[in-house]
UniProtKB/TrEMBL annotation:
The gene is Knl1_0. One of its GO terms (biological process) is protein localization to kinetochore. GO terms for cellular component: nucleus. CDD domains: DRWD-C_Knl1, DRWD-N_Knl1. Residues 18-144 form the Knl1 C-terminal RWD domain. It comes from the Eukaryota. InterPro entries: Blinkin, Knl1_RWD_C. This is KNL1 protein. Pfam families: Knl1_RWD_C. It comes from Vidua chalybeata (Village indigobird).
Length: 243
């Protein structure tokens, strides 16, 4: 009887272990999906810490001040932060337009935050600073990948040309089936893809204009791959036949 009870307990333990293992795998998948760690530590000394982002094209230098009384960080006395300085190392003359756009949006976010030292005055705030910049870098990096996708595969969606100028993207659509040719210009910001993009339309052939584009865009929710989904939706709803 005792053996059977032990066997039953062992089976319960095994079932519980299997359940915990499955839960751990599910949690790891979620962490992987929402991992916005975009920084790489290059240097850490008593004077400063240096971090790189986005394939070494953005560098953050954090200069430390004196220790903060009665405060600890990672089991050591906490330090004040004197400055957080960002620097771009992107060669804009050699880099593709999509990379230049991504860089502009990242630095647009950095400048929009005002004085970083006031927002993150001590070492204990540094993880939050790294998370905040990583989140924007991650979003902008995905935007760059979307732009590269459209430049390579746009013809599948009747997209003739993807032109990037400053922080605007011009999309030239042409469809003989729909007898339409028009240019859609989208204004991008560092908030992408959390907000609907301002746009304007220039019609070359046919009758697809701002009203028709607005009717399609209002059904495309902001979020992951917003730009790609916008192009696909325009293709599906406006360029498949006569209007």
């Amino acid at each position: 009887r005792e053996l059977s009870e032990m066997d039953a307990e062992d089976e319960l333990d095994l079932a519980e272990m299997e359940k915990l293992k499955n839960t751990e795998m599910a949690c790891l998948e979620i962490l992987k999906k929402y991992d916005f760690t975009e920084w790489e530590l290059m240097e850490w000394s008593e004077q400063q810490a240096v971090f790189n982002f986005l394939y070494d094209s953005v560098m953050l230098t954090v200069v430390f001040g004196p220790p903060v009384d009665d405060e600890f960080f990672a089991a050591r006395p906490s330090r004040s932060i004197v400055s957080l300085d960002f620097e771009s190392f992107l060669d804009e003359e050699q880099a593709p337009p999509s990379s230049c756009l991504v860089q502009k949006l990242i630095f647009q976010f950095i400048e929009s935050q005002g004085c970083w030292q006031k927002k993150y005055p001590k070492l204990c705030y540094l993880p939050q600073a790294l998370f905040d910049i990583s989140l924007v870098v991650n979003r902008c990096k995905i935007l760059g990948e979307e732009l590269e996708f459209l430049q390579r595969w746009g013809a599948k969606f009747q997209l003739l040309e993807t032109d990037i100028k400053d922080t605007e993207v011009k999309l030239l659509f042409s469809s003989s089936v729909a007898f339409a040719k028009f240019e859609l210009t989208l204004a991008l910001s560092h908030d992408y893809p959390s907000a609907v993009l301002p746009f304007r339309v220039q019609t070359h052939i046919g009758n697809i204009g701002e009203k028709e584009i607005a009717a399609v865009l209002c059904r495309v929710p902001a979020g992951h791959h917003y730009l790609q989904r916008t192009v696909i939706s325009i293709h599906q709803n406006l360029l498949q036949g006569p209007r």
